[in-house]
Amino acid sequence: MKRFIITTLFIFLAMSMIEAQDIKLPAPKTNGGMPLMEALQKRVTSREFSDKMLSDQQLSDLLWAANGINRDNGKRTAPSARNCQEIDIYVFIEKGVFLYVPEKNLLKQVIKEDKRKMAARQPFVADAPVLLMFVANYDKMTGMDKEAKEFYGATDAGFVSQNVYLYCASEGLSTVVLGSIFRDEIKELLKFNGKAVLGQPVAFAK
Fold first, then answer.
1. Is the pLDDT of residue 161 over 50?
2. In sequence order, what are the residues at sequence separation of 6 or more whose Cβ sits closer than 8 angstroms to the Cβ of residue 151?
3. Which of 58, 105, 116, 182 is exposed most, by the fewest CB atoms within 10 A?
4. Can you give the three-state secondary structure of 110-171, one letter per residue?
5. pLDDT band of 3, cuts 50, 70, 90
6. Please, are residues 196 and 118 in contact by the beta-carbon 8 Å criterion?
7. Residue 13 reports pLDDT greater than 50
8. Average per-residue pLDDT in the chain?
């Protein structure tokens, strides 16, 4: 009996260590913030980034604003064609690369190394503590041909990017959307069926 308990405890601890790499985010703050018209007035592109890391609460709020669940039926803050919800957000930070799982409000670790420098052409990306990568997941776009996947994937990524811009305007953060990213390298790294559409670093102003 004692041996069984020890074995069970060992398995539990091993599983906990594996799962500990994921980041469980606090519940997003979905009220308050800057009025919409003021946020639109303050929306701006900036390439000046502090290396100070965002808090877990800010990450949670940012990702929820970008493409989180805002209704009981599972629909999102950003629209998507045929409600495919195909835009996956990968979060590149110093600890590694994580997939945002809105249903669990979780960052699921997929890579354990800092890959910010290899993701985009612009050298300033490495200074930003957070790099969001918007990926059109073609496995979710059933019934669409290649042209439709390309078009709607790009369109829907644009909606998500604008949500990020407005959140950053509201919170006084710096951001810029990036089209010049290493798409082939990112796809090889993350092993998804689809296309890396846009990158978007987010940081405190320098």
1. yes
2. none
3. 182
4. EECCCCHHHHECCHHHHHCCEEEEEEEEHHHCCCCCHHHHHHHHHHHHHHHHHHHHHHHHHH
5. low
6. no
7. no
8. 92
24-204 CATH, one of 3.50.30.80, 3.40.109.10, 3.40.50.2300, 3.40.50.10680: 3.40.109.10
Q: Using one digit for the tens of pLDDT, what is the confidence trace for 71-115?
A: 999 999 999 999 999 999 999 999 999 999 999 999 999 999 999
Structure tokens at 68: 């989180």
Residue for token digits 């078009």? 151
Structure tokens at 22: 């994921």
Angle at 198 between CA 195 and CA 199, to 5 degrees: 120
pTM for the full predicted model: 0.89
Where exactly are the structural domains of the chain?
Answer: 24-204
Q: Is 195 left (phi over 0), alpha (psi -120 to 50) or beta?
A: beta
Question: How distant, in Å, are the alpha carbons of 37, 55, 184 from that of 59?
Answer: 23, 6, 27
Report d(CA 198, CA 134) in Å as an integer. Answer: 5
Report the run of H or E that residue 92 belongs to, with start and end: strand 87-93
Could you tell me how many helices (H) and strands (E) the chain has, helices first?
Answer: 6, 7
